[in-house]
């Protein structure tokens, strides 16, 4: 009878356990679908998209995939693979969403999953009223606006929310969006004072939508905006919270 090498058995067991632990860690990560692929010319999505993916992946708690364009919204089965949609695309090509795509996105959030909307993405579907309700506040051309891009301070006004827990006031270099529209009840977490509108404007906010969670932030004009540690924390925490309702 062939003898069994006990050392080999132990090593094989250790290897199996290590792989099992790694697989469990991967499966525990929230699945994130980043939708990008279009924007105005001043927004270099080819640069900000990989930067966004890198920041989210680096957190170690998110498993991200990137798609370009809106076609993915046509597939309810494809969306079902994810816990949260990170919507950073501005629909500059004015692609019309079909009824199925609209229904799929609405049901995705309403039935308990998450949505993060960033920067100009809130202006993507001006003719679709429900999109504005999903965002809570949204950019409307010829009404919303911003002053010259530059450095400004962001103030954390709600400190006990999972997204902002441990977050202190921070600075970023970006466009300070102002005069956003919308009447939905939102929870404003971070603000900034706009010299352009002469008002305090929301930078980060959340809202409940059915059983799901929506988090929005206005950051992301270019890669420089993401150099701020505060912005990076907002990006990660909004995604974690939208996916699970927690930031752990």
What does this structure look like?
By secondary structure, the protein is of the alpha/beta class. It has a single domain (30-244), classed as Class I glutamine amidotransferase (GATase) domain (Rossmann fold), CATH 3.40.50. The protein has 6 helices and 9 strands. The chain has a 9-stranded mixed sheet with strand order 2-1-3-4-9-8-7-5-6. The radius of gyration is 20 Å and the shape is globular. The model is unreliable at 17-24 (pLDDT under 50).
The largest sheet, given as strand count, sense and whether it forms a barrel, is: 9 strands, mixed
> What general outline do the C-alpha atoms trace?
globular
> What strand order characterises the main sheet?
2-1-3-4-9-8-7-5-6
State the separation between the terminal residues, measured CA to CA: 52 Å
- Helices and strands, in N-to-C order? HEHEHEHEHEEEEEH
Q: What name does CATH use for the topology?
A: Rossmann fold
Spell out the CATH superfamily: Class I glutamine amidotransferase (GATase) domain
Number of strands: 9
Uncertain residue ranges: 17-24
- Percent in strands: 15-25%
CATH architecture: 3-Layer(aba) Sandwich
Number of helices: 6
What is the averaged pLDDT score?
A: 93
Q: What number of structural domains do the residues give?
A: 1
Query: Class in CATH?
Result: Alpha Beta
């Amino acid at each position: 009878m062939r003898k069994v090498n006990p050392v080999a058995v132990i090593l094989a067991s250790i290897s199996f356990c290590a792989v099992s632990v790694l697989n469990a860690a991967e499966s525990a990560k929230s699945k994130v679908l980043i939708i990008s692929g279009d924007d105005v010319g001043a927004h270099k999505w080819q640069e900000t998209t990989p930067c966004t993916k890198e920041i989210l992946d680096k957190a170690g708690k998110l498993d991200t995939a990137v798609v370009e364009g809106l076609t993915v919204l046509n597939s309810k089965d494809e969306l079902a693979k994810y816990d949260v949609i990170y919507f950073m695309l501005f629909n500059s090509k004015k692609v019309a969403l079909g009824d199925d795509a609209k229904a799929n996105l609405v049901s995705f959030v309403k039935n308990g999953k998450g949505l993060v909307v960033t920067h100009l993405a809130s202006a993507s579907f001006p003719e679709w009223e429900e999109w504005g309700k999903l965002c809570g506040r949204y950019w409307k051309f010829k009404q919303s606006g911003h002053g010259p891009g530059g450095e400004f301070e962001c103030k954390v006004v709600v400190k006990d929310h999972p997204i902002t827990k441990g977050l202190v006031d921070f600075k970023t270099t970006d466009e300070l969006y102002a005069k956003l529209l919308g009447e939905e009840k939102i929870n404003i977490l971070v603000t900034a004072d706009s010299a352009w509108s002469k008002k305090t404007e929301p930078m980060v906010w959340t809202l409940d939508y059915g059983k799901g969670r929506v988090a929005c932030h206005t950051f992301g004009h270019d890669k420089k905006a993401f150099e701020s540690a505060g912005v990076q924390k907002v990006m990660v925490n909004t995604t974690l919270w939208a996916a699970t309702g927690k930031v752990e």
